[in-house]
Design goal:
single chain, two-stranded antiparallel ribbon, DUF547, signal, DUF547 domain-containing protein
């Protein structure tokens, strides 16, 4: 193996283990607390109703079945979101706006490149996935998926439950939820998503005290805190309490598809 190839493989390995830090993009911090505007996410909900299959431990998306008409509907939904200035919305509407946009964009990226075995196969030659690709323009600003998650959602809301509602089209990821985010019931939806993931084997797998956690808890340790903090967080949602001493971590990057 050449030195170049070795360095390339090492760079991919580090990309998996080193997640972006929360780095506020101040431009998007503005909101209008007096706004009563409600963003219509029904088109995205209709697509989820049609193509998302929900099972007890995993939701899967029927990418191969999406019709040309529904691909157009998805594109129009995204275009409608990106044509407005989310800074004019109140905080709850903003949160629903950004999460729904993130998830819709992720599905669009897969559909635009389907068939593909994993989202990590997308992006440029030296990229581990498409997260840094500038996918949309909002109010004259070009944004990537990483911008939405790590420069807007995480630093503005500072809520660890964000990790349970943004989906990366992978089996190891918290599920793509069957219901779009709604501004009037965000807290219940966030708690429900946390509870679903933390009680699934891909979130927390406790085999007689030998605990395997999702790599999310390793990558985003800055959000979840120490093992003591993490244990408290997990046990807030666990049906059976877990004790963390030296957990291992794992993540399944295979596409969350259903054929």
């Amino acid at each position: 193996m050449s030195v170049f190839a070795l360095l390339f493989l090492l760079s991919l390995s580090s990309a998996v283990t080193a997640a972006p830090k929360a780095d506020l993009w101040p431009y998007w911090q503005t909101s209008n607390p007096n706004s009563a505007t409600q963003v219509d996410h029904s088109a995205w909900q209709n697509l989820l109703n049609t193509y998302l299959l929900v099972a007890p431990e995993q939701t899967r998306f029927r990418y191969a079945a999406v019709s040309a008409k529904d691909k157009t509907s998805l594109n129009q939904y995204i275009a409608g979101l990106t044509s407005r200035d989310p800074r004019r919305l109140n905080r709850n509407e903003q949160f629903a706006y950004w999460v729904n946009l993130y998830n819709a964009l992720t599905v669009k990226v897969i559909l635009d490149h389907y068939p593909v075995s994993s989202i990590t196969k997308l992006g440029g030659l030296f990229s581990f996935g498409p997260w840094d690709d500038k996918l949309v323009t909002i109010d004259g600003k070009k944004l990537s998926l990483n911008d939405i998650e790590h420069r807007i959602l995480r630093p503005i809301w500072q809520d660890k439950r964000i990790h349970y509602v943004v989906n990366c089209a992978s089996l190891g990821c918290p599920d793509l939820l069957p219901e779009v985010m709604h501004a009037d019931r965000l807290n219940a939806q966030l708690d429900g998503a946390a509870r679903r993931f933390i009680n699934s084997p891909k979130g927390v797998d406790d085999q007689g005290g030998k605990v395997r956690l999702s790599s999310i808890y390793d990558w985003y340790q800055s959000d979840f805190g120490s093992l003591t903090d993490l244990q408290k967080h997990l046990n807030n949602y666990r049906k059976q309490p877990v004790t963390l001493t030296k957990p291992s971590y794992d993540y399944d990057w295979r596409l969350n598809e259903f054929r």
